[in-house]
Amino acid sequence: MSVDWSARYQSGETPWEKGEAHPELPFLLSKHHELVGDAVRILVPGCGFGHDAKLIHSVTRAEVLGLDLAKEAIKQARSSYYQAGLAWTVGDIFTWPGCYDFVFEHTCFCAIPVERRADYAASMARLIPEGGYLLGVFFLNPDHEGEEGPPFGVTLDELKGFFDETFSLEWAQEPAHTYEGREGPGRELSMLWRRKS
Fold it and tell me: Of 42, 71, 118, 179, whose CB count within 10 A is highest?
């Protein structure tokens, strides 16, 4: 099912918009501070209103780019967070060019059609050079029985199937902090992937 993300933002139908960065992100940035700190260019795909990108930018000297399909989301991100080294662009992750030594994934993977997940993994492999990192909070179980996504759930084995060929899994842990309504085991998984040679 294709989603008109611009229409969703225009209508205010944005249940994923929580008004703040993911509550686990401060912990992730602290645990992997050296990776974020050493990064030169960071990408946040599906950035929405930019809360995650803004928090990442506050702890690094890297150039941080928030990317989203919806121009309304990018317009709001630009309005809310305007500062040097933090940029916002409308674009499609499947065709976006560039090279980023660190990518933070939060709500992009779970929002794309399931049949395009292999394309997403291929895009990450293309955008991240050897030795670069993909850090993500993956939504395993959206728990909306009887409703179609997005968001779409995924299993750990499926994630490994998509990323194992070109990335090595460095670290994984269920978040200790999350948004209200996402609590409970098996809902989300924080993962750090390193791009293989």
Answer: 42
| Digit-coded pLDDT (tens) for 76-88 | 999 999 999 999 9
Terminal-to-terminal C-alpha distance of the chain: 35
Q: Which two tokens stand for residue 121?
A: 């993994």
Full-model pTM: 0.95
The pLDDT score that the predictor gives to residue 132 is: 98
Q: Determine whether domain 5-11+23-195 maps to CATH 1.10.10.10.
A: no
Cα–Cα distance between 42 and 66 in angstroms, integer?
9
Query: What tokens were used for 142?
Result: 């959206």
d(CA 20, CA 54): 10
Alpha carbon distance 150, 4 (integer Å): 12
Kindly list the domain boundaries of the chain, sorted by start residue. Answer: 5-11+23-195
Calpha distance 132→195 (Å, rounded): 5
